[in-house]
Specification:
Layout lengths: L1 E5 L6 H12 L3 E3 H10 L3 H10 L7 H12 L8 E4 L5 H13 L6 E6 L2 H10 E4 L5 E3 L18 E2 L6 H15 L1 H8 L3 E5 L4 H12 L2
Parallel strand pairs: 1-3, 1-4, 2-3, 4-8
Antiparallel strand pairs: 5-6, 5-7
Helix pairs in contact: 1-9, 2-3, 4-5, 6-7
The structure holds BIS(adenosine)-5'-pentaphosphate, magnesium ion and zinc ion (ZN).
Zinc ion (ZN) binds next to loops.
Length: about 210
C-alpha cells in the first residue's frame, strides 16, 4: 500500500502517519524528520536544508527528490509506505509518479487531513517533539505522562525551531501557494480522500481506517 498524507503544517500528518505505519506494518517516511535528523548530525544535506527550513521555506525539489528516491531503495519499502511531507510541490508529485511508473507501480491513495488555518497556529505553539525518537506530543491535546519527558524513550522534549508563530504563518502561506494545488492534482487522478482533521486524533484515525480498510 502506497499512501500519501496531505495537509497544512500542523494538520496532524505525522501523528496519523505514525498510527497508519504501525497498524498496516509499513514504514513512515517523513522528509521533515529526515532533514531534522541530518541537521542534528551536522551533515552537508542538513546544513543546506536548515537555511530553508528556519525561514519556513521549502527545501529545493532536487534535494528532496534524490533523498526520497534513495529511501525507496531500502528493503522495508517493498510492501509500500506512508509518505508524510512528500510530495509538497507539483514537480515533486510528477517526479514521484514517473519513478513509480518506471517501477510498474503507483500511489494508491492520497489522504488530505483538513484543518483550517485558525486551528493551526494554536496547535503548533503547543507541539513538543522528542530529541531522541522524534515522537510528537501536544501540551494540551496529547500530553506526556511526565512534563517535558518522552513517554517512549525518556529523552527531553523541545519546541521545533520552525514552530515560532511568525514562521508558522510563513509555512502556511507557502503551503497554500505550493502544496495545496496537490489536492486538485490527486483529485484529477481519482485517488484523493478527505478526512476532518479538527476532531480528536483517534477519531481522525478511525476515519482513515475506514478509507484504507481493516
Ligand atoms: P515537516 O516536518 O513535514 O513539517 P510540516 O508539513 O510543516 O508539518 P508538521 O510536521 O509541522 O505538522 P504535521 O502535519 O506532521 O502535524 P503533527 O502530527 O506534528 O517539514 C518541515 C520543513 O521541512 C518544511 O517547512 C520544509 O522546509 C522542509 N521539507 C520537508 N519536506 C519537504 C519537501 N517534500 N519539499 C521541500 N521541503 C520540505 O501535529 C501537530 C500538533 O498537533 C502536534 O502537537 C500534535 O500532537 C497535535 N495534533 C495532531 N492531531 C491533532 C488532533 N486531531 N487534535 C488536536 N491536536 C492534534
Ligand atoms: Mg510532521
Ligand atoms: Zn522519545
Amino acid at each position: 500500500m502506497k499512501i500519501i498524507m496531505l495537509g497544512a503544517p500542523g494538520a496532524g500528518k505525522g501523528t496519523q502517519a505514525k498510527m497508519i505505519a504501525s497498524k498496516y506494518t509499513i514504514p513512515h517516511i517523513s522528509t521533515g524528520d529526515i532533514f531534522r535528523a541530518n541537521i542534528k548530525n551536522g551533515t552537508e544535506l542538513g546544513k543546506k536544508a536548515k537555511t530553508y527550513m528556519d525561514q519556513g521555506l521549502l527545501v529545493p525539489d532536487e534535494l528532496v527528490v534524490d533523498l526520497i528516491m534513495d529511501r525507496f531503495k531500502e528493503a522495508d519499502c517493498a510492501n509500500g509506505y506512508v509518505l508524510d511531507g512528500f510530495p509538497r510541490t507539483i514537480p515533486q508529485a510528477e517526479a514521484l509518479d514517473k519513478a513509480l511508473a518506471e517501477a510498474g507501480t503507483k500511489v494508491d491513495v492520497a489522504i488530505n487531513v483538513e484543518v483550517p488555518d485558525e486551528n493551526i497556529v494554536n496547535r503548533m505553539g503547543g507541539r513538543r517533539a522528542c530529541v531522541g525518537c522524534g515522537a510528537t506530543y501536544h501540551i494540551v491535546y496529547n500530553p506526556t505522562k511526565v512534563d517535558g519527558v518522552c513517554d517512549t524513550c525518556g529523552k527531553e522534549l523541545i519546541l521545533r525551531d520552525d514552530d515560532k508563530p511568525e514562521t508558522v504563518q510563513k509555512r502556511l502561506n507557502v503551503y497554500h501557494e505550493q502544496t495545496e494545488p496537490l489536492i486538485k492534482y490527486y483529485t484529477n487522478k481519482g485517488i484523493l480522500k478527505e478526512v476532518d482533521g479538527t476532531v480528536d486524533m483517534n477519531d481522525v484515525f478511525a476515519a482513515i481506517v475506514n478509507i484504507l480498510g481493516e
